[in-house]
C-alpha cells in the first residue's frame, strides 16, 4: 500500500520527513512536492531503486532522470566538470526551477542518465523537498510523479490518481507554486541552450548577459525548438520520431495528454474568439436539431471566458447546456496563474464526459513559452481551425 505523509511546508514535521527519507534510503519510491511539480523520488545512487521508478511510471528507459540535490557542494562528486556558464546559472537560480545538464561522473548509475555521458542536476527550493533530500543524505532521482504521458501532478491527489499502490509513499505538502516543470539548460558551452522551457525564462538568462541559443534538433527538419524561438505556430511534436535524435530524450515523447484529444485554437486572439463563437453557435444548432452531439471541453483563460461565456447556455437550458465543460487555466494578465492552473485543469477533464477539448493559446514570451510548450505537447499537433 501507499503511505501518505501530510506535511505543512510552513511548519515541517520532522517525524514524517525522517520516515519518508528512511524509505528512500531503503530503496523505496516516495513522491514529494517541489516548487515546480510533484516528483517521484528514489535514492539516485541506487540503480535498482531508480529502475523501479521507470516501472512505476511506465516510463521508457531511454528517458533520463534529474538528480535532485540539497547543497552546491554535492555537484562535484556527481560531475566531471562544472563549466563557468553553468556555474553562474546555478549561483543565480539555485535553489529553484532550473535543471543543468553536466558531464556525469562514474558515481551516477547509468539507469539515471539512460546511458548518456551527461547528468541533469537540480536543487529545488521547496522547503519539503530540500529537507527530504537533506534527510535522505543522497541525491534523489526524480521525474515528475505522473504515469508516463499524463500531465504532471501539481497536488498530491494527482499523484494518488496515477500511482496509488505502485509506490511506497506520498509526502503531501499541498499545491506546487509554479505548476510546470523546471527549465532544462545545457550551458556547457558558450551559450545557454534551453532544452525545455520553464520558470527560468530565456529573458532572465539573457538579462545576465548570457547568450541563449535556440535549440536546433539534430537530424530533423522542423524540430521541437520553436518554444525557444517564439514561433507562434510550432511544429507538431506528436509522435515518437524514429529519425529524430534529440539532445534531451524527453523531447520525442507525447506528453501531458488528457484522455480526450486536445486541439489548440488557431490564429490570433480575435480569430480564436470568433472560432469559439462559431463553435458554440454550430453546436447549439446541432443540439436543437437532433439532441445529439459531442460534449466539448473548453480550456480558457478567465478573460476569454468572460467574453464568450454569456453565449454558453447553462446546464439544463434548453438542451445544449450539458454539451460543454469549461475549465479555467488562469488570467492572461498574469501568466504565472496560467502556469499554475494548467495541468490541474487539463487533468480535470478526465472526470468529465468530454470527447474533445479546445484550448486557447497564449503569447509565447516569458513564462508563456513554457505554457505554450506544454500545450503544444498536450495537443500533439492538433489544431482547431474552426
Ligand atoms: O521540475 C522538474 O524538473 C520536475 C521536478 C520533480 O523536479 N522533474 C521533471 O522530471 O520534470 P522529468 O523526468 O519529468 O523531466 C526531466 C527532463 C526530461 O525531458 C529528460 O529527457 C531531461 O530532463 N533530461 C534528463 N537528463 C538529461 C540529460 N542528461 N540530457 C538532456 N536531457 C535530460
Ligand atoms: Mg515528466
Automatic annotation (TrEMBL):
InterPro entries per UniProt: DHBP_synth_RibB-like_a/b_dom, Sua5-like_dom, Sua5/YwlC_C, Sua5_C, T(6)A37_SUA5, TC-AMP_synthase_SUA5
Domain YrdC-like: 14-200
GO biological process, one term: regulation of translational fidelity
Database matches in Gene3D superfamilies: DHBP synthase, Threonylcarbamoyl-AMP synthase, C-terminal domain
Alphabetic keyword roster: ATP-binding, Cytoplasm, Nucleotide-binding, Nucleotidyltransferase, Transferase, tRNA processing
Major localisation: cytoplasm
Localization terms from the record: Cytoplasm
Amino-acid positions noted as binding ATP in the UniProt annotation, renumbered to this chain: 59, 63, 118, 144, 152, 196, 256
Enzyme Commission code: 2.7.7.87
Family of the protein in this entry: Belongs to the SUA5 family.
Name under which the protein is recorded: Threonylcarbamoyl-AMP synthase
Biological source species: Heliomicrobium gestii
Amino acid at each position: 500500500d501507499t503511505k501518505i505523509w501530510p506535511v505543512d511546508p510552513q511548519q515541517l514535521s520532522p517525524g514524517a520527513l525522517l520516515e519518508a527519507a528512511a524509505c528512500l534510503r531503503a530503496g523505496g519510491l516516495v513522491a514529494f512536492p517541489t516548487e515546480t511539480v510533484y516528483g517521484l523520488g528514489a535514492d539516485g545512487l541506487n540503480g535498482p531503486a531508480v529502475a523501479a521508478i521507470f516501472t512505476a511510471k511506465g516510463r521508457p528507459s531511454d528517458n533520463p532522470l534529474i538528480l535532485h540535490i540539497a547543497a552546491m557542494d554535492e555537484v562535484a562528486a556527481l560531475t566531471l566538470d562544472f563549466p563557468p556558464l553553468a556555474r553562474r546559472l546555478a549561483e543565480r537560480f539555485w535553489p529553484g526551477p532550473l535543471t543543468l545538464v553536466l558531464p556525469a561522473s562514474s558515481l551516477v548509475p547509468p539507469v539515471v542518465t539512460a546511458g548518456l555521458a551527461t547528468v541533469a542536476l537540480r536543487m529545488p527550493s521547496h522547503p519539503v523537498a530540500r529537507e527530504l533530500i537533506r534527510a535522505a543524505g543522497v541525491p534523489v532521482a526524480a521525474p515528475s510523479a505522473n504515469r508516463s504521458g499524463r500531465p504532471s501532478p501539481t497536488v498530491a491527489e494527482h499523484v494518488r490518481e496515477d500511482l496509488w499502490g505502485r509506490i511506497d509513499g506520498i509526502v503531501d505538502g499541498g499545491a506546487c507554486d509554479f505548476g510546470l516543470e523546471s527549465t532544462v539548460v545545457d550551458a556547457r558551452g558558450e551559450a545557454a541552450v534551453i532544452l525545455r522551457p520553464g520558470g527560468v525564462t530565456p529573458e532572465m538568462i539573457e538579462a545576465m548577459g548570457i547568450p541563449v541559443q535556440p535549440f536546433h534538433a539534430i537530424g530533423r527538419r522542423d524540430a521541437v525548438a520553436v518554444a525557444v524561438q517564439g514561433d507562434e505556430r510550432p511544429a507538431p511534436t506528436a509522435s515518437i520520431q524514429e529519425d529524430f535524435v534529440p539532445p534531451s530524450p524527453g523531447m520525442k515523447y507525447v506528453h501531458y495528454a488528457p484522455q480526450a484529444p486536445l486541439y489548440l485554437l488557431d490564429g490570433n486572439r480575435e480569430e480564436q474568439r470568433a472560432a469559439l463563437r462559431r463553435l458554440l453557435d454550430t453546436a447549439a444548432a446541432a443540439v436543437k436539431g437532433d439532441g445529439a452531439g459531442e460534449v466539448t471541453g473548453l480550456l480558457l483563460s478567465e478573460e476569454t471566458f468572460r467574453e464568450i461565456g454569456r453565449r454558453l447556455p447553462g446546464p439544463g437550458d434548453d438542451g445544449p447546456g450539458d454539451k460543454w465543460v469549461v475549465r479555467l487555466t488562469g488570467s492572461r494578465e498574469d501568466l504565472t496563474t496560467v502556469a499554475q492552473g494548467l495541468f490541474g485543469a487539463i487533468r480535470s477533464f478526465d472526470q468529465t464526459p468530454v470527447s474533445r477539448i479546445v484550448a486557447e493559446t497564449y503569447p509565447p514570451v516569458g513564462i508563456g513559452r513554457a505554457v505554450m510548450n506544454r500545450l503544444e505537447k498536450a495537443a500533439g499537433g492538433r489544431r482547431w481551425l474552426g
